[in-house]
Amino acid sequence: MSKTIVVTGATSGLGLALITSLKTAGFKPILTGRSASKVSALGAELDVPGYQLDVSDPRSIRTVTAHITRDHGPVYGLINNAGIWLEGDFETYTPEAIQTVIDTNTTGTILMTHALLPDMLTRGTGVVINTVSTGALYARKLISVYAASKWAIRGFTGCLELECAPKGVRVMGFYPGKIDTNMYETAGIERNLEVAMSPQQAAAMVLVMLRDENMIWSQVSGRSIRDYL
Ligand SMILES: NC(=O)c1ccc[n+]([C@@H]2O[C@H](COP(=O)([O-])OP(=O)(O)OC[C@H]3O[C@@H](n4cnc5c(N)ncnc54)[C@H](OP(=O)(O)O)[C@@H]3O)[C@@H](O)[C@H]2O)c1
To answer: Measured in whole angstroms, how far is the alpha carbon of residue 38 from the centre of its chain?
Structure first.
């Protein structure tokens, strides 16, 4: 039977590319996104189950993850991909914009994991892949809050990796540089994306991380899962 993989923020960019790549690779992808109309249109077009899920809303996370499990049984994999960009001098950010970035990129990832990981641990199998960013590997000006949101997930991912690997569940972070998606434009930022990965290339890398059940692709290197036992 195909393994069920839940992808957040799957209505564009990397998330959408992941849905098609996962399907082609024989997984059962579950498309989730905050826009109901995009979810239903893309779910129908790609012939995959779709659910409206706003990761910045803890109630949406609780309700929708319960519905997905009820409708599709155990979830093998979770790809925490939903994310938003914020760029500019720190003092120009509104408190609301700061809160939204943290709620989406950080708390959303943590609460999604909190909702779906326990069942993986009980079954002794599963995978969580968090889309982080090179922005969580070094400091850069003008992205203080986006970086904070992703550095937090780097720490979260690393700690959970160590906690869960001995229990058979792989928790990994994906650290891409620029990907040619709408992320910057949606945030009102002009960015030259001529030299950037395509969403399909980034999805192919995530697929490698997902598929090899003996490996944990930890930050920028790999480690055998047997090394944790
Ligand atoms: N693009 C890059 O250069 C780059 C580099 C490093 C890391 N990343 C990371 O890669 C991930 C994917 O981004 P992308 O580049 O593919 O950008 P994107 O095309 O803008 O896709 C982001 C997705 O997240 C969704 N989303 C935003 N807020 C949400 C919420 N509250 N609940 C659920 N879904 C939400 C968006 O939904 P809507 O369609 O409704 O807007 C969209 O589907 C993000 O975590 C980003 O930080 C991107």
So the answer is: 18
